[in-house]
Specification:
The complex is a heterodimer of chains A (449) and B (531). Chain A contains eight helices and 18 strands. Chain A has 449 residues and is α+β, with helices and mostly antiparallel strands. Chain A has a single domain, classed as Lipoprotein localisation LolA/LolB/LppX (outer membrane lipoprotein receptor (LolB), chain A), CATH 2.50.20. In chain A, the strands form three sheets. Chain A has a 14-stranded antiparallel sheet with strand order 1-10-13-14-15-16-17-18-4-5-6-7-8-9. In chain A, strands 2-3 form a two-stranded parallel ribbon. Chain B is mainly β and 531 residues long. Chain B has a domain of 180 residues. In chain B, the strands form four sheets. Chain B has an 18-stranded antiparallel barrel. Chain B has a three-stranded mixed sheet with strand order 12-16-15. A two-stranded antiparallel ribbon of chain B has the order 2-3. In chain B, strand 10 and strand 11 form a beta hairpin. Chain B starts with a helix and ends with a strand. At the A-B interface, helix 1, strand 5, strand 9 and helix 7 of A face helix 2, strand 17, strand 18 and strand 19 of B.
């Protein structure tokens, strides 16, 4: 008991004596002011925007604009919000990916997993298919997830049957699991919307998307992003797989926010973004834990490069940043998909990632469609399209950096509250170029580049 | 004394959990936090069997997938040494089991696979403590260690898959059903060495795989499975002299030890060799069929199984007089049973529940009806002892069924309520035990309650769940006791998980299912490394 008190006293003294350094600006600080409120955006830039909040409605679905998706400029905030829903975490076409994912705490606890996701998107590819071909309540997507790592869950499977929802038909997921240790397929309760996955920052809604009509949209401003997801200086390269199942070593510094083919990079490498606010509509999402979401959307395809979620106190709860690339050229600007996504919870100081490696567009055969995406298929333990990847993080010291928080941007609309300890950890990370775990020593020798 | 010991243990668990949780908390900084951080980062990549065994093997043989685990379970009693019923309970450890699993999958072609799962088990409880009451290895060495290929080679089968059908031939286990517990999960027999402490999560390692042909045909979202099982395996109950041998069952330990030593002649009934179904006799083989339907949001299925009762019943075959004392001659026999089962589940969501909002839920149902189950009948036996020779066995239909409601509460909290019913049709007080029926009663109702949640302040590494299993019954008993189980599991790394488990038995009478184990409260720990 007395030793506990001594230890607690030491911890308390150190916490008081040690200075909590100011958060370094990192890459964001190297660039001049990049953000502008809508008042500061030029009239010429605003020509593509429509600031009306009331527009004619679709006669069949009054929660949608009368104008047919994907809309023509000028765009209202609502229309851009709906366009951004094209790019949820799981692409809106049939495909296969190797999903490597994991989380890291500020203290260095690393937990990872990996699996092969088989996605069967029932309508024509793209959001338009779901909006105009799938009736509310009907199934839009069937996704099977076969875990291959860690060993404890190797062979476990999930089946998600996703429904289009509206205000009356609110069942979003039928969810089944198969555990080899039980050898049983179990139907699970529908995951609670907005609730984190255990052991991760992201929620089910972050993965399967939210209905854009569940939110009230407005323009916040414009910004230029120079960095979204960042690799540490301890990880100079990453091995990526392609659809041909070739593995190739890629310098992490060469990965661009929207991939190599994106034609709209600024000369300085930045991506012009609109910043929009999506405020939760309580009549659609009663009791939802998120009150608003801020989106940084590229100005051309409206791809969300950065997403910030705010809790009931309107304080920043989750930051999501992405690196995307063109994965389905047949769809043009709608063919972008997340290659790598990082989620950060500044209150828990927990970071998660999800890397979609070996993305393969796939048309399922009739036999596949009939059999593969059903609950009973899971007990066969059959991974019908094995994929290989080396995208898992090898050690905590090579984990992704916490995303930049940009506390100076849009201060009226963003409230960021950090504990001194988290501020200090972020500052140490930015100074070192990699995640720093030990608060009593500057940088561990192991983690040095 | 025992109460103090129990309190001390519970305090110890609380302190250990608090320390682990505190150290893992991101709020806990300073020197201790740094030390814990170094430990965490060391464990994150600590996978020696993966690096030095699995990876080199898989590199040499690309078509082979190799994996496994090493698990250590220890359970220690919280009560002092004493005589309980017919048992000399002079031991402290209920198990000190070490299990190594080696699992191999070799792909002859993308859809043709050979699977082999091997288990190497050693239970130190018979060697690492002094006890007269633990002599089970003299009855069956398997209680201490798996020492023959039958137990070491758990599964060995070849499988072929196509879109429309699966065929698996060889030694394997098949689990039917959707519920926690055994309702239509009747294909394989079970090693029940842990008796009332055998949990659903243990079935994977305790089922006794058998040689069979397993064919499944898939049509749309539905399927039909056919099983042909030439190889019969019976349940393995706790042998005499093992930690979980029921204290309510005679004879006393001292008598059994003396008989095993040859110091006294066997007493009681004259027991003939067991009449066991033969693999070579087609008429002795088992078979079953299962049909599954997926009609979203409902999935359901039906089963029929024609197989042997997994436990033999003693049939009286003769009555002899030895030195003027009448003795019954009995033969353990297996009875072929017909089982009919149904299973189903349904998902829904209750909108606008106060304080919770939408409340997702799943309802599961499962039932098994079995015809003509043999029960020992003490009235028949008494008549036989008096000279009215009869088999001493009567047959009754039984039903076991359960309904489960699982709720997804906020903070990743799961609550499950599962009332289970066991019923013996045509019950009379002189009946013993029979498959699927109530425990020495006409009916049992077991309203299982379970709650589980992770703790965010430990980054979900600490997870605690509680289960209560009360047994109600009638007309003989009102309450047969309650088992309560508290489990705290902690994820040390992506390869290593530890658990602390407290199990208590209270209430009921000395002959009741849980009541007889009232002195078997125990605390256990489990450490598992998977590679």
């Amino acid at each position: 008991m007395s030793s506990d008190r001594i230890l607690a006293s030491i911890v308390l003294c150190l916490a008081i004596v040690l200075p909590a350094g100011p958060a370094a600006g990192g890459e964001g600080a190297r660039v001049a002011k990049t953000w502008r409120t809508m008042d500061e955006v030029s009239a010429a830039e605003k020509e593509v925007l429509d600031f009306r909040s009331e527009t004619p409605r679709d006669p069949k679905f009054p929660y949608l604009p009368a104008e047919r998706y994907p809309f023509e400029p000028p765009y209202t905030a609502e229309e851009i919000g709906i366009r951004s829903a094209e790019f949820i975490h799981i692409s809106r076409w049939s495909h296969v990916i190797y999903d490597a994912f994991g989380m890291l705490t500020g203290g260095g606890y690393l937990n990872q997993g990996a699996g092969v996701a088989l996605v069967h998107y029932l309508p024509e590819p793209g959001l338009a298919g779901e909006l105009y071909q799938i009736a509310p309540g009907d199934v839009s997507t069937r996704m099977s997830f076969y875990y291959v790592f860690p060993p404890e869950i190797d062979g476990a499977q999930d089946l998600y049957i996703l429904h289009r929802t509206d205000d009356k038909r609110t069942t979003k997921i039928d969810y089944f699991t198969y555990a080899p240790s039980l050898r049983r397929v179990r139907r699970q309760p529908e995951p609670r919307r907005g609730e984190r996955f255990p052991n991760n920052v992201q929620s089910f809604d972050d993965i399967i998307g939210r209905g854009p009509w569940e939110f009230a949209w407005r323009f916040i401003g414009a910004d230029v992003l120079y960095a979204t997801l960042r690799f540490p200086n301890t990880r100079a390269t990453i091995t990526l797989a392609n659809a041909a199942r070739e593995l190739r070593e890629v310098p992490t510094s060469s990965l661009k926010m929207m991939g190599d083919e994106y034609p709209y990079y600024r000369q300085d490498g930045g991506v012009d973004c609109w910043v929009l606010e999506a405020k939760t509509r309580a009549e659609w999402l009663p009791g939802y834990p998120i009150t608003k979401i801020l989106y940084w959307l590229d100005r051309h395809s409206f791809y969300p490069l950065r997403i910030e979620q705010y809790d009931q106190k309107e304080e920043l709860q989750v930051v999501e940043v992405r690196i995307a690339r063109q994965e389905n050229p047949a769809l043009g600007e709608l063919g972008y998909a997340a290659l790598d996504t990082v989620y950060y919870d500044p209150k828990l100081d927990m970071t998660s990632y999800s890397m979609h490696d070996a993305h393969t567009v796939r048309e399922w055969t009739d036999a596949d469609r009939q059999v593969v995406f059903s609950p009973d298929f899971m007990r066969r333990g059959w991974l019908i399209q094995p994929l290989k990847s080396q995208a898992l993080v090898r050690s905590p010291s090579e984990f992704y950096l916490r995303p930049l928080l940009y506390p100076e941007k849009f201060p009226k609309d963003r409230k960021i509250v950090l504990t001194p300890e988290v501020e200090a950890r972020i500052a140490a990370q930015e100074a070192a170029g990699h995640v720093v775990f030990e608060t009593q020593t500057t940088v561990s020798a192991e983690a040095s580049p | 004394m025992s109460r103090d010991l129990r309190r001390t243990c519970l305090r110890g668990i609380g302190a250990a959990l608090g320390l682990a949780a505190g150290l893992a908390s991101p709020c806990f900084g300073g020197v201790a936090g740094d030390a814990w951080s170094r430990f965490d980062r060391f464990l994150a990549t600590f996978d020696p069997a993966g690096h030095y065994v699995r990876e080199p093997i898989e590199k040499q043989i690309p078509a082979l997938v190799f994996k496994g685990f090493l698990r250590q379970w220890t359970d220690a009693l919280l009560t002092e040494d004493q005589h309980v019923g017919f048992r000399n309970k002079d031991f402290r450890f209920l198990q000190m089991q070490n299990l190594l699993e080696a699992e191999l999958h070799y792909f002859l072609a993308p859809n043709i696979e050979i699977t082999n799962i091997n288990h190497f088990l050693y239970d130190g409880t018979y060697n690492w403590q002094w006890s007269e009451g633990l002599f089970a290895p003299r009855v069956s060495e398997t209680a201490r260690a798996y020492h023959d290929s039958e137990r070491i080679v758990r599964e060995l089968y070849v499988s072929y898959r196509s879109h429309t059908f699966d065929l698996a031939l060889g030694k394997q286990q098949v689990a039917w059903g959707k519920m926690d517990g055994q309702f239509i999960d009747i294909v394989n027999a079970m090693d029940r060495r842990e008796s009332v402490q055998l949990e659903t999560s243990d079935y994977e390692y305790r089922r006794l795989p058998t040689w069979m042909a397993n064919f499944t045909y898939f049509f749309g979202k539905n399927s039909i499975q056919l099983l042909y099982i030439p190889n019969f395996e019976q349940d393995r109950l706790p042998p005499q002299g093992s930690p979980w041998y029921p204290p309510s069952v005679p004879p006393p330990d001292s008598v059994v030890r003396a008989e095993l030593a040859g110091n006294v002649p066997p007493s009681g009934d004259i027991v003939l060799d067991r009449q066991k179904p033969k693999m070579s006799d087609f008429g002795d083989n088992e078979g079953g069929v299962r049909v599954d339907f997926s009609m979203e949001p409902v999935t359901w299925g039906l089963i029929y199984f024609n197989g042997w009762d997994d436990n033999a019943t003693n049939y009286i075959v003769d009555r002899v007089a030895e030195n003027g004392v009448p003795r019954l001659v009995v033969q353990p026999r297996y009875k072929r049973l017909n089982h009919f089962g149904v299973t189903g589940d349904y998902a829904t969501s209750f909108p606008d529940v106060p304080m919770i909002g939408p409340l997702p839920a799943v309802l599961r149902v499962e039932a098994l009806y079995t015809l003509d189950v043999p029960f020992s009948d003490f009235a028949g036996r008494a008549a036989a002892e008096l000279g009215d020779l009869n088999s001493g066995v009567v047959e009754r239909d039984t039903l076991r069924a359960a309904v489960a409601l699982e709720l997804a509460l906020p903070a990743n909290t799961t609550v499950l309520f599962q009332p289970s019913l066991y019923y013996t049709f045509g019950y009379r007080k002189t009946l013993g035990l029979g498959f699927g029926g109530a425990y020495l009663d006409e009916w049992n109702l077991v309203p299982v309650f379970y709650v589980d949640r992770p703790f965010l302040f430990t980054s979900d590494r600490l997870r605690v769940n509680f289960t209560g299993y009360p047994i109600l019954g009638g007309p003989r008993s009102d309450f047969q006791g309650i088992k309560t189980k508290l489990i705290a599991s902690y994820t040390f790394s992506q390869f290593i998980v530890g658990k602390l488990i407290y199990t208590a038995y209270s209430g009921g009478k000395d002959i009741d299912l849980y009541g007889q184990y009232g002195k078997w409260d125990n605390i256990g720990w489990e450490l598992s490394y998977e590679f």
